[in-house]
Amino acid sequence: MVEVRRLVPDEERLTLLRIFTHSDWLAQIVFAVLLASIVATIIVWAMQWIAFVRGRGAWRDSALAYLSAVVVTAPLLAFVRAIYEVMKVCLGLVNVRPAPDLTMFAPAFAEAAMFLLIGTLAAALASAARGHLTIMFHTPVREG
Q1: Nearest of 88, 90, 106, 91 to residue 26 by alpha carbon
Q2: Is residue 49 part of a domain?
Q3: The domain containing residue 85 runs over which residues?
Q4: CB-based contacts of 103: which residues, under 8 Å, 6+ apart?
Q5: Which of 69, 71, 44, 74 lies closest to 59, judged by CA?
Q6: pLDDT value of position 140
């Protein structure tokens, strides 16, 4: 027998925005911190690049320290929050009879994946920016 599958109506579909809006306040704060670190990484990189092009080297060490901090902390923060979501799913599976189907826990899995994605993106951008600035700062300036 062939089972017919239907798409969920648009108003009931799970989207990134719905994942965020249905998260608890702590998850929203962690998400905001990770997004702010992405924006700040881009700003720090752009400001240092502009300063370098103009011949100024202001705040080099601070910029590299900030980018290094994002590389280390963003994935860890995201990983801790993702593990917390997975732990909530496990507790829910154990404490409910009969065991619910996967659709009950899919939003929590999606939230965990979202945190891993954003944390990894923040770290990757910061790592790329740090590498680019390090190369720029250590490359001799050619005159002429």
Answers
A1: 88
A2: yes
A3: 25-138
A4: none
A5: 44
A6: 62
Three-state DSSP at 140 gives coil
Instruction: Write the DSSP symbol of residue 139.
Output: S
Q: How far is residue 78's CA from residue 94's CA, in Å, rounded to a whole number?
A: 25
| pLDDT tens by residue, 55-111 | 776 678 889 999 999 999 999 999 999 999 999 888 888 888 887 788 888 888 999
Query: From the centroid of its chain, how far is CA 97?
Result: 34
Maximum C-alpha span of the chain: 77
- Helices (H) then strands (E): counts for the chain: 4, 0
In a domain, 3, yes or no: no
Domain-located, residue 9: no
The answer to the question of residue 54 being in a domain is yes
Count of the separate structural domains present in the chain:
1
Q: Decide: pTM greater than 0.70.
A: yes
CA atoms within 13 A on the CB side of 135: 6
Residues 6+ apart with CB under 8 A from 28: 20
Give, in order, the Cα–Cα distances in Å from 10 to each of 96, 106, 120. 29, 17, 29
